[in-house]
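Minutes, structural biology subgroup

Action item carried over from last meeting: produce the structure token record for Nickel/cobalt efflux system (Methyloceanibacter stevinii). EB confirmed the sequence was re-checked against the source entry. Recorded below for completeness.
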Amino acid sequence: MQDLIALQRWLYEGMASGLRDVASGSWPALAAAMAAAVLFGILHAMMPGHGKTVLFSYHLGQKGSLLSSIANGAILALTHVGIAILLVLAGFAVISRAFAYGGRTPQFELASGIFVVLIGAYLIWRAVSRAAPEGAECQSPQKGRTLAFVTGLVPCPLTTFIMSYALARGLLAAGLAVTVAMAAGMVLTISAVAVLATLSRERLLSFFSRTEGARRWLGRTLEIGGAVLVVLFGVWLILGAQTA
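Output recorded by EB:
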């Protein structure tokens, strides 16, 4: 873990150095900064947080396609970064409050947590009350997209720092390019987590395919268990916002 943190720090310094060089008139340095940002995004998304737990829990419990897993990972990551960009563009008066919490925005964490709990509660109710056998229908993609979006409503603190750093030097375009590159790296990692959950679910169910009763029980258990984990993650967000 320490090696991963050290590598992230090195890549982050590479991004900052690239932006400084761009400010000095060396636009080719932007390409190097963007390359470092992609790698940084991949590694940064491996660290705790970023909604990976809720997305993994959802796709482990809900039947869905690999394409929907990738799409939901992209929605979560892009929302996570996009909200931070919008906050910075909204003005430094807004961002100054975020810096007071070390880059965190408790209001967004609270709102996101409430929405996540509500969606998780609905998934539990649906799993318990639905009479259709496991595997008879595929979960509506819209619910997964909604969950990914509300989970991503918590802004990325590093994006606020990068964009604020760039804006302070009059480098809006360069700052956007670097943060978009970082978001692309985060999409790769978060989508991979969602795909892993989907494949794990399929593997587990196929293992019990010869015993329909056991397969149905496992499917229902995964569905309820995944929904419970979604609720717990939402509660964790709410509690974290209250203690910020």
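Discussion: The two ends are 25 Å apart (CA to CA).
Next step: EB to file the record with the rest of the batch.
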